[in-house]
Amino acid sequence: MRRLLVALSLLLATLWSAPAFAQARSQLGPLCTTDTTPTDQMIDACTKIIALKVFKGEQLATVYFWRAVGWNKKGDYAKAVADATEAIRLQPSQAAYNLRGSAYYDRGEHDIAIADFDDALKLGPPDSTIFHNRGNAWRGKGDYAKAIADYDATIKLEPKSAFSFQNRGIAKAALGDLDGALADINQAIRLDPTLPQPLINRTAIWRARGDLDRAIADGSEAIRLAKEKPPANIMTPPNSVLIAGYTHRALAYEAKGDYARARDDYKATLAIVASDAGSKANQATAKVRLSLVTDAVAPIPRDAPTPTVAPSQQRTGAASAPSPAPAARGTRMALVIGNGAYAHVKALPNPPNDARAVAKSLRDIGFTVSEGVDLDRTAMQKMTRDFLREAARAQVAVIYYAGHGVQVDGRNYLIPVDVELKPGASMTDAMIDMDTIMAGLDDQVRTNILIFDACRNNPMAHQVASTGANRGIEGASGLAAPTSLGAGATLGAGTLIAFATAPGQVALDGEGANSPFSAALSRHLGTPGLEVQQMLTRVRTDVVSSTKSKQVPWSNSSLLGEVYLAEN
């Protein structure tokens, strides 16, 4: 699943040619330039050679390259980029561009990584490793067609590349071709049965098909292999394979209702040090889901019937009400919350009406809806956690929120009706973190649609001023664009997130019974045969017209295909 080490034949000219540098040649050289050298020794040896100040040009570039290799093995990608950049300055090479591109990839900076891989390919003949690495970066961007093209080029040059068959399978699965994905991943396993990565990705395919026993078996074998034989490829981020193995097996255990084993695997995931973006995203998911399965009092029945939530089960305010029954696989579920009756900040008349209208539209098209109006923090947190737990087996999950929302330091928070900023209190502790919700939904076998009509004027600015809080949010209008739409580590139906207005802008509550955004959303949500992004385009057109261009709804998508909320 990870990048391959570019052939050492791509390295620069022989380093040790000057007899005057006997110490470097006899002692430090082999430690610096041997990929089996322990990481800290490699970095230390290369650093001492650089400190000698006796090498220039190609020779010095080689030392910087190998120290970058050491930083990469250690998972310190910033230093790997810095040293690879110095190697490129001294002597551009395919190896250095490939290494720097791989470090950028592991930091989640896919565009820069692709540019480096492009430059690497310009410097020399076609190289299977660089095509493979660029395919990974295209896949990270969600451009699966270009990723498949690069994996095709890799396989043509290297027909026995197990990783390229595996990653081509991942890209095919992302486009919905599960049969083609399974064929490629099976071929990867045949080519090298000692690799844990293909088994991890086959785990996700079995989960997507609902074959949880096979998913658990593959996950267990992947974990065994990762422990028995850690990846030798120095481009593989430290611990990334083991983290992915535990995360995927935990998701399978949870979907099966085996919460005890799921808890153990999530804890194992969090106990491992993560360095790369994908591993950190897996750990964010594990942290949220661990808390959810820890709260669970009974396992989910595997074949539970799809429930319909009656009005008596809808939750309003802080009152306690029974949770909807657990969802069966394939269920389309929605969480709808409208907060307007704020006790300590400006009240909003429309969000409860907006929530009721959207909830009705979703029920009319077959969604199982959990609905809450004017929720305090305790009720809002419980309802959200219940939904995230139940959505573990859903095929499509929709979240709609209307009410106050703010951004603090670039993170978005939804505000319960009892929020009150007090001197000395942490501002964000009283709110619901949107990133936590997204992490809880980051399971690669489900489509997630998140819609937020929560960009009204900051309701807490006057409280910030009156309490003297030093982390003021009055300068952060509206909500922030999400920095991620989920890990996207392997498969994924994808995520779409929509705001009532553009990031950083303020939405209108409206003069009628509903906000301009929610009125348009309710009007188009139930249109049969209308793809979800086309539906949001119609909503945007209506809102721009009704507000005389004062408000322009915004959305961002990592959906991997067409999604229809209301079928023909």
Report on the architecture of this protein:
- The structure is a single chain.
- Helices cover 50% and strands 9% of the residues.
- By secondary structure, the chain is an alpha/beta fold.
- Among the domains are: 125-192, Serine Threonine Protein Phosphatase 5, Tetratricopeptide repeat (Alpha Horseshoe), CATH 1.25.40.10; 311-507, 3-Layer(aba) Sandwich (Rossmann fold).
- Helix 1 packs antiparallel against helix 2 (39-52), helix 2 (39-52) packs antiparallel against helix 3 and helix 9 (162-174) packs antiparallel against helix 10 (178-191).
What would a concise description of this structure say?
The protein has helices at residues 22-32, 39-52, 57-74, 77-90, 94-106, 110-123, 128-141, 144-157, 162-174, 178-191, 197-209, 212-228, 240-256, 259-270, 277-295, 351-364, 377-390, 434-440, 461-467, 516-525, 532-546, and strands at residues 315-316, 332-338, 368-373, 396-402, 405-408, 411-414, 432-433, 447-453, 494-499, 554-557. It is α/β, with parallel strands linked by helices. Among the domains are: 125-192, Serine Threonine Protein Phosphatase 5, Tetratricopeptide repeat (Alpha Horseshoe); 311-507, Rossmann fold.
